[in-house]
Amino acid sequence: MVLSASDKSNVKGLFAKIGGQADDYGAETLTRMFTTYPPTKTYFPHFDVSPGSAQIKAHGKKVAGALIEAVNHIDDIAGALSKLSDLHAQKLRVDPVNFKLLGQCFLVVVATHQPAALTPEVHASLDKFLCAVGNVLTAKYR
Amino acid sequence: RLLIVYPWTQRFFSSFGNLSSPTAIVGNPKVRAHGKKVLTSFGDAIKNLDNIKATYSKLSELHCDKLHVDPENFRLLGDILIIVLAAHLKDFGPACQATWQKLVGVVAHALAYKYH
């Protein structure tokens, strides 16, 4: 799976529209993920996972930041997220299936807030991008 | 969107004519008609929430024996449906999404249930 030039342009364009709301999108993504897929909470036993919690806000901001970093270095996502990839492989070891779940929830957040921007083509590009990010984060698992 | 986001799903629709681009897919009348069929079928599940397996029993056999569809495709379709709902409905909060993800999961399971 390779990001084409138009995929990259679609993703950059979408994130430009999201702008400063990215942190909120991150938090909402996590809330939706914890609500929709309860087993994902097993990775956050130390968290207050109630919607709007300070920890969800902070972590949502982290997740959004990582996605933005990937968008800004979309020609070399592996390079941009290398340290995060190490972290997930050595310390966090989140089962790979969960990245798809997070991705699905991010797509839903974008769909609810930017329905006009999420055309079928942009949807496809964003889905590919989120897969690519997930692949990078699990690349060093074994 | 299923055919655009996961293009390999087009393998089941070689009789649908032009699926060569997102524009072609969006404008394809066979795609539209099939979308109507699928959503109408979802409506049947909602009318029979206590008995979804029975509701889909024959369809499950059809998808296995005649259509030869990998059940993974039902999960892909379910996820896409959720995103479409999210884009169109005014109120699609976390609890609503969670419920609908469960429903599409149950439908996917029911459609796969008679596979052998």
Automatic annotation (TrEMBL), chain A:
Coiled coil: none annotated. InterPro entries: Globin, Globin-like_sf, Globin/Proto, Hemoglobin_a-typ, Hemoglobin_oxygen_transport, Hemoglobin_pi. One of its GO terms (cellular component) is hemoglobin complex. Residues 2-142 form the Globin domain. Involved in oxygen transport from the lung to the various peripheral tissues. Belongs to the globin family. This is HBA protein. It comes from Psilopogon haemacephalus (coppersmith barbet). The lineage of its organism: Eukaryota, Metazoa, Chordata, Craniata, Vertebrata.
From TrEMBL, chain B:
The keyword Iron applies. InterPro entries: Globin (IPR000971), Globin-like_sf (IPR009050), Globin/Proto (IPR012292), Hemoglobin_b (IPR002337), Hemoglobin_oxygen_transport (IPR050056). One of its GO terms (cellular component) is hemoglobin complex. Coiled coil: none annotated. One of its GO terms (biological process) is hydrogen peroxide catabolic process. The keyword Transmembrane does not apply. GO terms for molecular function: haptoglobin binding; heme binding; metal ion binding; organic acid binding; oxygen binding; oxygen carrier activity; peroxidase activity. It comes from the Eukaryota. It holds the Pfam family Globin. Residues 1-116 form the Globin domain. Keywords: Heme, Iron, Metal-binding, Oxygen transport, Transport. Involved in oxygen transport from the lung to the various peripheral tissues. Heterotetramer of two alpha chains and two beta chains. Belongs to the globin family. This is Hemoglobin subunit beta. It comes from Psilopogon haemacephalus (coppersmith barbet). The gene is Hbrh.
